[in-house]
Fold:
Amino acid sequence: MNRTTSFESAQYTPVALEDPQQGQSDPPPAYEPPPQVFTQGVAQENNATRSFLVERGNQESLAMPDLESCLNPTRGNLWCKLISAIIVVVVGIIVACIVDSYHKVNEGYVGIYFRHGALRDKVTDPGVHFLMPFVEDYKEVRIRPETFSMEPVLSITKDGIENTFREITTITTVRKDKIVMMAKKFGMDFKKTLVFDRIKEDLRIFCANHTIDEVYNTMFLDIVENVKENVRTSIRRLGEDGIEILNLVIPKPEIPPDIAHNYKQVKVQWTEQLVATQT
Structure:
């Protein structure tokens, strides 16, 4: 019994005891952190935060797909491709409309417009303009003075002599406020109908009412004024003075060679007689 008591006392006796004789003490025990009481709660909060961030990232990725997923065929999705195609088509349509509607009217011209082939009452001045794309079209009409050389005109005089007028030249100008009216009545080539054809017609009528001597010699200077006045009357009656003739030049006609030779012989004889009387 005494042995057991002594053994227990020896077993539970502290190893380091203060020695009153030496005055020394054992070092303090090492620091141990307190137990983590809230570890499980913090882990749950971290998991909830991580779940929220993942869910938010998925929503953002669905709402706005990144460029890499669009360009990478392995990661692309149908919505991204569809939206991209729609954007490209819309941009292409807008560019095509701008290109088709933009046009420029040069100085000295005015623009007239057609909608589905029908001429409108719209006339624009020189500059940049826009029209309705794919529906309207425009053409430029020259309003500044224009010189035009006509083709040769064949005519026959009262006495049956054929002659040809070459290099007939005319200078004309167009009134802006009458362009639409003349284009509707006579087409875009209204000058041909109102001016050039009328010159040919009146020149042939004059020749038909006069002899070759009158056309080639005695009344040649009257041809221009006669034809010009008749053409102006026709323009006033048909085109409401929409075209003004500024100048008209009609050279002497070409007549048959034998008749021209006779005129030369007459001129030579007249000159010889004039010289003889003076001497």
